[in-house]
Write a structure and sequence with these properties.
- There is one protein chain.
- The protein is about 45% helix and about 10% strand.
- It is built from 20 helices and nine strands.
- Strands 1, 2, 3, 4, 5, 6, 7, 8 and 9 form a nine-stranded mixed sheet that branches.
- The longest helix has 24 residues.
- The protein is elongated, with a radius of gyration of 30 Å.
Length: about 600
């Protein structure tokens, strides 16, 4: 149990047998004003504690409590013999006695010098005012810029003696660093309060808690998840934030306080969070940009085009494509947009509002524009006959972070792929998280999610938004982006069944699914790759990377792929096989009476 402020405790603990509570209060104030006088209430218990030492004593008590709690978690039932003797004493100098206990509980470790590399992270700044992408499709500009984040450094007495001189650009060790150490080394057995050792202990505790949850040992899981909070406070930056969200998700699963995100107001809140995530980092911009470039190439030379957007949201993806089509040689085509989205809160028609804004934009750049919005609780509820597909149109179907949610309902993804085939699109663009959060085994899913979101949070620490917003707006966007990712963590870890909608799968899994459904890949050309690289130049930080994977593009951080863009079209022979199957079914079907 964490101690409260000792001043408040002493004041509230004054005995009612005193001549006057008012006089007692005055006497206490007088003593606090003279730092050289011993604390009266501790003096009654036989301890000599100067008023000026009260804060230091409280801090040492908290350190001892954390160390003893860690020892209990690691299975230590006994402390060193010297410490056992000390417990029986009633020392007159409480501060010195606590210092002695800390020395016994916290021997100075000899750290591996390899740890030092985790403390250094070079962040190169590249200011880009005007980029020529060599294409009509320009990068979507950002609006947020982050100042350097200042982290709390360890106190001098706990700082590694072999730590190299501090550099200008510096970040705290990431969760991914400690996860790698945990997977490659046995559990630490020493009792330490150092933040680096606590980082390793933190990952061990999270993994042990997840294992206890999988084994339905909720009593042990409860004890472990409480300990995560003590360990997380010693960490800085991304590591503390990730641990806090995963601890909350574990606690919700242990206590069965499952988050629900099906109400229209919750969905509208998630859309708002995603808009800030869009402004903060390059992931959504990369998704929109690469998908738009693939659609633009499919629309080359076409006079009538139709985009069916499965993830309409606030329509942020389409102004850049409209502008690129407006600048096309030979003039722009007629542009139809069908936006699909969930029900809106309080009966507001946000899809029509988005369409109205896009229509105004299209009119300003002289693009003939037509828009329809469809409300659907799920993409599986769509009916292709209602989408007004016209024979003279070139059709593109677009899905950004939407298809994985269909995996929560058996058969839903197969139904949606059949609906897409009925539309006969010239191109299908899909962007999904590059992760495997759909495992039936909780511990595997938890481990994968811990790796994935640790990398995402680590990348946010160096993101600057690529724009020119002031520091206050940058900090706000970053904080809300963390909440956006935290909601996903809660869903992956705490939910099950149809409520667990964040069922991300890898590109390999999606590739197998699309191939089986009669689609073949459309390779994203080298031009898309080069322009994606230029888009990342808008953002500071050298950790981002774009990789090509069999015609698909992946955006990652520190060599870890995080999202993948792929493009698809109907297989050449699949239509004939599909028509033949339907003919055979009709031939063998019983004849109806006339």
């Amino acid at each position: 149990m964490k101690r409260g402020n000792l001043n408040n405790f002493s004041t509230s603990g004054s005995s009612s047998s005193s001549p006057s509570s008012m006089d007692k209060g005055k006497m206490w104030e007088c003593e606090m004003e003279e730092p050289g006088i011993d604390d009266e209430l501790f003096g009654v218990l036989g301890y000599k504690v100067k008023s000026s030492d009260m804060a230091e004593v409280a801090h040492k008590i908290q350190q001892i409590e954390v160390a003893m709690g860690n020892a209990a978690i690691d299975g230590y039932s006994q402390f060193p013999a010297a410490m056992d003797d000390t417990f029986h004493y009633n020392p007159s100098d409480l501060s010195s006695w606590l210092e002695g206990m800390l020395s016994g509980l916290n021997p100075l470790p000899e750290f591996d010098s390899s740890f030092d590399s985790f403390l250094e992270s070079a962040t190169g700044g590249l200011a880009v005012d005007d980029l020529d992408f060599g294409s009509d499709l320009v990068a979507i500009p950002g609006k947020a810029v982050f100042a350097n984040i200042q982290f709390h450094q360890p106190s001098p007495e706990n700082r590694n003696q072999h730590q190299p001189p501090s550099k200008k650009a510096k970040t705290s060790p990431s969760m991914g660093d400690f996860i790698s150490l945990v997977e490659s080394s046995p559990a630490p057995r020493s009792i330490l309060i150092d933040s680096q050792e606590n980082g390793i202990r933190l990952v061990h505790t999270l993994m042990a808690c997840a294992e206890a949850v999988q084994q339905e040992n909720f009593k042990l899981a409860e004890a472990l998840v409480k300990n995560v909070g003590f360990l997380a406070v010693s960490q800085a930056g991304a590591m503390r934030k990730v641990a806090t969200y995963f601890a909350e998700a574990l606690a919700r699963r242990i206590y069965r306080l499952y988050p629900v995100n099906h109400h229209p107001q919750d969905l509208a809140f998630t859309d708002m969070l995603q808009m800030h995530f869009y402004e903060t980092c390059p992931y959504l911009k990369f998704a929109h940009f690469t998908a738009n470039q693939a659609i633009l190439e499919a629309f080359a030379g076409k006079k009538h085009v139709h985009v069916i957007d499965f993830s309409m949201k606030q329509g942020m993806q389409w102004p850049a494509l409209l502008q690129a089509l407006a600048l096309r040689q030979g003039g722009p085509p007629t542009f139809r947009l069908t936006g699909i989205g969930p029900p809106s809160p309080e009966d507001t028609d946000y899809l029509q509002e988005v369409g109205f804004r896009l229509a105004q934009f299209a009119k300003a750049i002289n693009v003939q524009f037509e828009y329809r919005g469809f409300v659907a609780n799920s993409l599986a509820d769509l009916d292709s006959s209602l989408l007004d597909i016209r024979e003279d149109e070139t059709i593109a179907v677009n899905s950004i972070f939407e298809l994985h949610q269909l995996l929560a309902n058996p058969g839903a993804i197969d139904k949606v792929l059949r609906i897409i085939r009925e539309m006969k699109p010239d191109i299908l663009t899909v962007v999904e998280q590059e992760a495997n959060h759909n495992s039936n085994f909780f511990l595997d899913r938890f481990t994968e999610a811990l790796h994935y979101y640790s990398t995402l949070f680590d990348s946010l620490e160096t993101c600057d938004g690529g724009g020119g917003a002031d520091e206050a707006i940058s900090r706000k966007n970053k904080m809300i982006s963390e909440v956006y990712l935290g909601q996903q963590i809660l869903n992956v870890v705490a939910c099950e069944g149809v409520d667990r909608v964040e069922r991300h799968e890898s590109l390999t899994q999606w590739r197998n699914r699309f191939n089986s459904a009669g689609f073949e890949p459309v390779h994203l050309g080298s031009n898309v790759y080069k322009q994606a690289i230029m888009l990342l130049a808008v953002f500071d930080g050298d950790g981002y990377s774009v990789d090509e994977n069999d015609g698909c593009l992946m955006l990652g951080w520190q060599a870890r792929p995080l999202i993948a863009t792929s493009a698809w079209t109907m297989s050449d022979g699949y239509g004939e096989r599909w028509n033949r199957r339907k003919y055979v079914q009709r031939r063998h079907a019983p004849m109806s009476e006339s």
